[in-house]
Amino acid sequence: MTVHPSLQPSIDAWTQSIEAISELASSLVDGEWNRATECPGWSVRDVVSHVIGGECEALGDPRPIHTLPRDLYHVTDETTRYLEVQVDVRRHHTGPEMTSELEYTIIRRSRQLRNERRKPEDIVSHPLHGKMPLQDFLDWRVFDVWTHEQDLRRALRRPGNLDTAAAHVARDVLLGRLPKVIAEDAGAPKKSAVVFDVGGPVEFLRTVRVDEHGNGTVDSSPSLGPIVTFTTDWETFVRLTSGRVRAKKVADKLRIEGDTDLAERIVNGFAPAH
User: Fold this and answer.
1) Which top-level group of life is the source organism from (predicted)?
2) What contacts 74, CB < 8 A, 6 or more positions away?
3) Which superfamily, per CATH, for 177-268?
4) What is the CATH number of domain 8-161?
């Protein structure tokens, strides 16, 4: 029995992206480990620690027993507190310790994925994300790894891999969040539509529609009269919708047409996605 064919593309995308992180990490000099990233409060070392921790939890390893310092300004709620444990426990690790743990974790996780015999629809449980189908969990790991690969690339000024298979998985995860952000959080009017016109390495046009009951859905059909249209490039879309930057910081790369008040509520609703 082999890996279910529906899962293999996600496993391949994860493999390419996490190996790219390993390659970046192995080439770092001492000062680069401490370089700041766009993730609040996290350095390059911290992002790599988070990736290691995420894969260790996917492996079923016990969580570290660790008490966080009280002065971490970016730890603001239970989610950030949960994520910070895997990061802070490695804050004093050396570069060689980080790279060796990352490589060993990739070996273990790759072996686990090669031996995956469950079906895409089988339910898995995660302490932070709750219960979800295995396919969705694997796609979440792809999204997490790829977005952090891009965090590292921007911090280190080593751009690349914006159009990989993992990038397309990340696109779908980010698009899947838009209906809630627009219909529920931003309170877009019933029977309205918001359009995202994105160019660059990953190019697409998507419409988020709010029905007469206030429920949001996303599709690839154009809207004749959208209430708001966002036009931007792929990398800016990722940075914005994953909470890496505020709209004001990328105003030169973001064109907004339509209801400015609603647009502002939408862009302010994009929370950091660690």
Assistant:
1) Bacteria
2) 40, 41, 42, 80, 84
3) SCP2 sterol-binding domain (3.30.1050.10)
4) 1.20.120.450
